[in-house]
Amino acid sequence: MDKMIVHGGRTLQGEVSISGSKNSALPILAATLLTRERCIIEHVPDLSDIHYMLTILSMLGCEVERASGVVQVKASHINTEAPYEIVRKMRASVCILGPLLGREHAATVSLPGGCVIGDRPIDLHLRGFEDLGATVQVKGGDIHILASHLQGATVNLRGKYGPTVLGTGNIMMAAVLADGMTIIDGAAEEPEVTDLAEVLIKMGAKIHGAGTSRIVIEGVKELSGFTHTVIPDRIEAGTFLIAGAIAGTTLTVSQVIPHHLEALLSTLADAGFDLVTQKDSITITSNHLKKPVQIETHPFPGFATDLQAQLCAMLSTIQGVSTIREHIFPQRFMHLAELKRMGANIELDGATATIIGVNQLSGAPVMASDLRASAALILAALAADGVTEISRVYHIDRGYEGIDKKLNKLGAYIQRSSPDISY
Ligand code: EPU
Asked: Which residue from 299, 324, 328, 319 is spatially nearest to 309, judged by alpha carbons?
């Protein structure tokens, strides 16, 4: 298993170009199942989660080609069963349910198992499919969904922790080929949902209101192929901005949509950083007046849960008392114990972390538990004194395209070590 060895204390500076969004690309790839025609997707990041999705599409019978960020999919003839061996590797596999149901009126996909960032049910997705007239059965660890025909309906996707992002995508993808009108109330407003809706509209779907909490879909008979460029990854961009905050002088993230990052930008401004936003770039400049902040994670346009761990690493280095309250995944705090190993002073009470900034983090052997926790450990390691050895970095390769290479270009010193053959 690869490790990352981060030599702390180097100053970051320069410009980094942001890759295509993982969380946009995954449901867009699933949407290719809705048509027999060729679909071309550009700016697809080279990540293991994308690789899993392409494998699933191939297993379902799609022709899949990939060359330097461009993926072509042709789903002429497909089957409707995705087995556990591949689905278990990635929770986002559930987003094939909607398109399979929409096109074939049937889907069998393994129920995703537990997840380290907390309990992640898909009850809202399944209830939405039932609202559209499908029957859902969970048997032998698999979800079986069948519909003699899909009928547009009003579907409420607001759950205990707010709207569901992949659930909204799933219901949209099933409803575009249903008879009549579907109204999604409590829809997720994330930019990734809007990007997916844009793709579906290019395919001939009739969708209004994506990006708001009420999406209206008028079903159509069939959909065509499309060409689409995936939006930039706002979470990768946010992670690099926080890297600039924690270890940089002046750092620019380019090829971004600044509007997708407003909540983070206002938090960084509150923490005392200077930010300059241009049409498709953001520059952060670090100064000496860093301040603690109080934040809460919320669905878009609120502060993203996917940046919570990284912000936590940054706040560990800012004098004073900061707090972070996690509303989306209340148990998403696996990074705290590892950050404490690096000298961070953090108390967790329920879903609220109180962070008392320390003068200096110190390098230590730590373990990545999930994608964003891994990113937080890398960020903390950049600011730490000495060397940090991060194990289980396969988590980071799920969602960050060459993060070590990109950081090294900015002045960091990160090495990867190959598996230790002694175990
Ligand atoms: N929820 C339910 N029932 C459901 C679905 C969700 O109760 O049927 C709850 C979840 O447990 C959670 C909340 O609703 O408390 C929001 O979950 P959501 O369904 O929105 O999450 P998701 O769609 O499965 C996507 C991203 C996550 C990101 C969340 C929240 C993808 C592939 N994943 O997951 O990204 O944290 O939205 O913004 O789009 C990541 O990239 O590291 C990541 C985990």
From this structure: 324
Tokens (6 digits) for 161: 């922790």
Pocket test for ligand 1, best of 161, 171, 192, 193 (most atoms within 8 A of CB): 161
Q: 408: helix, coil or strand?
A: helix
CATH superfamily entry for domain 22-229: Enolpyruvate transferase domain (3.65.10.10)
Report residues whose beta carbon is within 6 angstroms of any ligand 1 atom: 23, 26, 92, 120-125, 159-162, 164-167, 188, 192, 305-306, 328-329, 371-372, 399
Domains 3-18+233-417 and 22-229 share a fold: yes
Domain boundaries, the chain: 3-18+233-417, 22-229
Tokens read off for 344 = 């961070």
Which of the residues 39, 62, 95, 115 is marked catalytic? 115
pLDDT, average across residues 206-223: 98
- pLDDT tens for residues 348-361? 999 999 999 999 99
pLDDT band at 88, cuts 50/70/90? confident
Supply φ then ψ for residue 303, to 5 degrees.
-70, 125
Query: 3-18+233-417: what fold?
Result: UDP-n-acetylglucosamine1-carboxyvinyl-transferase; Chain (3.65.10)
Give dist(CA 231, CA 22) in Å, integer.
9
* Owner of token pair 């971004």: 256
Q: From 21, 23, 122, give the residue whose CB has the most ligand 1 atoms within 8 Å, as the site to mutate.
A: 23
Specify which residues 66 forms β-bridges with: 71
